[in-house]
Write a structure and sequence with these properties.
Blueprint: H1 19-29, E1 33-34, H2 46-57, H3 70-84, E2 94-97, H4 99-111, E3 117-122, H5 128-134, E4 138-143, H6 153-158, E5 164-170, H7 182-192, E6 198-202, H8 222-225, E7 228-233, H9 234-237, E8 246-249, H10 252-265, H11 271-280, H12 285-288, H13 290-304, E9 320-324, H14 333-344, E10 346-347, E11 349-350, E12 363-367, H15 372-382
Parallel strand pairs: 1-10, 3-4, 3-5, 5-6, 6-7
Antiparallel strand pairs: 2-8, 7-8, 9-12, 11-12
The structure holds 4'-deoxy-4'-aminopyridoxal-5'-phosphate (PMP) and glutamine.
Length: 385
Amino acid sequence: MPNYKHKIFSKLPKVKTTIFTTMGQLAQKHSAINLSQGFPNFEPDQNLINLVTQAMNQGYNQYAPMTGVLELREEISKKIEQLYGRHYNPENEITITIGATQAIFTIITAFIGHGDEVIVIKPAYDCYEPAIEVNGGIPVFVQLNNSDFKVDWEEFRSKITSKTKMVIINTPHNPSGTIFSTEDMLQLQQSLEKTDIIVISDEVYEHIVFDGLEHESASKFDGLASRTFVCGSFGKTFHITGWKMGYCAGPAELMHEFRKTHQFNVFSADHAVQKALATYLKEPKHYLSLNKFYQDKRDLFLSGLSNSRFKIHPCQGTYFQLVDFSAITLEPDDVFAERLVKEYQIASIPISGFNTKGIDKHLVRFCFAKTNETLVKATSILCKL
Ligand code: PMP
Ligand code: GLN
């Protein structure tokens, strides 16, 4: 029997179990209200479930095409064109993936190799850096401003070198809940103008934007669309995070290269779910109603916290709200989050782990993709702190 104890050369020596898993387990152990990992605690539309069952009964139980069901790619193409005015050819510019996570991992694997630099804006969603590092790439960080989470575009430009191969952006942004303005997108476009840098635009919360603000998709901007993979996720939009279904759209030459890796990474995604989503997407109200649906939840959550000691800037998008707990305690955010589960039975996500150098600004993230009853119960507990 080989003994691997001292023999494994880890490609990811710093990586631990994700904070989402850790906090989720802690929530379960303490029977806490779980506002940590981002997922709805209510059911998706029964009609969508019925469409999947129907597709299974119709025999869509074997491999889907490698690039995804064409009818679904056509519906995605129509949606992007209607919303953002850009045409992606469903044949060779859109691929269906196993959630946005797989799209992002596969893009990085297809394009990033030893010594390539990838600019990551921090705090960042946790799947970017390990994907870069496992492929031998080097993440280069730009920290968002601590008060309003804006990018300092001068600093951003100073991080671009001859080794920069890729930039990853995320709007609406997890965990801050802020969105990129048109000006931000133009700054990004201009910064990359004279380069061959590829962009991953993680837009999984594109349909969760509040207060009449607009989502600025990279696909809207000529100078970005020509170098960008736009990544989407049906998990967020249709309350089906467990179905792991997403896609990416990008220019044909980039997509051609992407598919070389995709076909050996997963080959294809769930067939019946793709058939169901192709039908479900034909009705735009299924995604256009989401802004209001989640704005009502955000507002309920915020009004419930109005008498609490948390300091809050209402989020502009996503189903996450950051709260500043410094008026309650100055303990480290992970210690506070752990105490919140154990003593108050509320699970949250501490933010320092997503920042460069673990910067701790006394912030935790709550997910408000929960039933109104859960939100009322949670906020009444949080007001006691
Ligand atoms: N990007 C961001 C910013 C996310 O919050 C998430 C998670 N939910 C993902 C990507 C992954 O999406 P999926 O569940 O479709 O893989
Ligand atoms: N996107 C989810 C969040 O931010 C986490 C999904 C996961 O656990 N990988 O909470």
